[in-house]
Design brief:
Largest sheet: 6 strands, parallel
CATH topology of the largest domain: Rossmann fold
Strand order of the largest sheet: 3-2-4-5-7-6
Helix content: 25-40%
CATH class of the largest domain: Alpha Beta
Structural class: alpha/beta
CATH architecture of the largest domain: 3-Layer(aba) Sandwich
Distance between the termini: 65 Å
Strand content: 15-25%
Number of helices: 22
Number of domains: 3
Length: 601
Amino acid sequence: MPQRMSGADALMDALHRHGVSHIFGYPGGAILPIYDALHKAESRGWLKHILVRHEQGGTHAADAYARATGKVGVCFGTSGPGATNLVTGIATAQMDSVPMVVITGQVPRAAIGTDAFQETDIFGITLPIVKHSWVVRDPRDIGRIVAEAFLIASTGRPGPVLIDVPKDVGVEDFDYVPVEPGSAVPAGFRMPPAPKAEAIQGALELIRQARRPLLYVGGGAISGNAHSQVAALAERFRLPVTTTLMGKGAFDEKHPLAVGMLGMHGTAYANFAVTECDLLIACGARFDDRVTGRLDGFAPRAQVIHIDIDAAEMGKTRLPDVAVVSDVKAALEALLAASSGETSEGRTEAWLERINTWKHHYPLVVPAPQGQIAPQEVVVALRELAPDAFYTTDVGQHQMWAAQFLHNGPRRWISSAGLGTMGYGMPAAMGVQTAFPDAQVICVAGDASILMNIQELGTLAQYDLPVKVVVLNNGWQGMVRQWQESFYEERYSASEMTGGMPNFPGLAEAFGVRGVRITERDQLRSQLAEALAHPGPAFIEVAVRRNENCYPMVPPGASNAQMVGLPSHPELAIDTSRQCGSCGASTESAHHFCPSCGAKL
């Protein structure tokens, strides 16, 4: 039966019906009717609102909430500057395919287009960075729009959507008819296709023939909850597994078949393996430029199987020999079903031995314990003291060291990968801690990036969220400094952060968060352990070596095998060439046709 209520009350009912238990946001004039309805919803026990200190913090918290739980994250912001403050967080979620519903207040319908106070066209501004968006012109559409929003955000390739609600729509009373989840399907909407049998058979034939296969796993395996299927396929065919920054946690990084992360700051053995493999099986990965390095040197000898839910990714940067357009989990289950009872028959053992040789000669290195604390030492200490924690990161050198040395389970590694958003880590940790109040949540940050959203210490304090923020302080924008040293003749332009640096522990204490500073190696583990055991939020600053660089590193314009920062082992040199079977010409081209004779490579 229809119920008489306001548009704002209808919105809260619709969110409640879609299982929303937490909302991150910040109020303002245009969204006040929704916040008034939110107050009533909270009093009924429907949900809990987390008041962030900046709208960007709200988007990152909702984003990480979604990454950690697999549910849709929800955040609120008002019109004008409130809405524009959400843009970076929306773009972050879009680049990393994170399901999120963003709800903004807007000026009244009659004022739209008049340059009214705090009016911005957030619908138009965000068009390139959302899966879909709506401006609610009639309160009777609210139930349908919310149902469509959650369906679109969470199905197919996940992503953010936006609902813009004019103020007068929120206050207008009408006869509300609830719309149940999944019952409103937009015109033209299609669920992801099941994997085609011929594609599965084609993929299996390539796997059966391969002698040097490599399973290349991206964030789609995480969002598709396919970690068990990844492990089963790898173990059945004895496939070494490399993951992207987004794919961390999709495969046990302590497993003998694991070769760690590949790409610009990936392990040497992952980058060598992708250069020499004869079959690359991409699962929920998009051949990002930070993974591939110079594209014509990426997997130059390999045939490619590409499994992805988004057909637009097929051939975007690398043409696959077999394309499987499907949910990653469904595709891997189909491969496992079609290959039941099969084994690798020893085909990959020589290949695995070669990879183990690379692992032995090119391990990830923690610098010798002398002088100031090395940042890698801090990450290894965290790994040993808190092996099962959820880890969020900011962006920079510390992010890469964390990616290299931490071993994470599924959905326990949460980092801005595609957009590389500084300031992401601490609000992301708030979102994870809100979702899992009894879990251990640690944010690894740098002294530059933490300042981007330092105000969220107030949110940690208000809600007593026991997040532990560990800042590796080297007094620089570390990755910028490393690039300036390596590629700009040591001209350190605007990258040093010591001038104006706050007393971080004192600043944390001013917010009501425990502050700790660690400067001595012999106290590192004991002080870290004590701070991690603190029952409330804590901010731990560790003074680390100022000029430590993150290696290995693939320089810009180089192929993955051309890393710097590695020990020299000429006997293990990697051959990056690719030979045409028709004319014998050698090329490093990753294209499928010989530049000399035109034959298919």
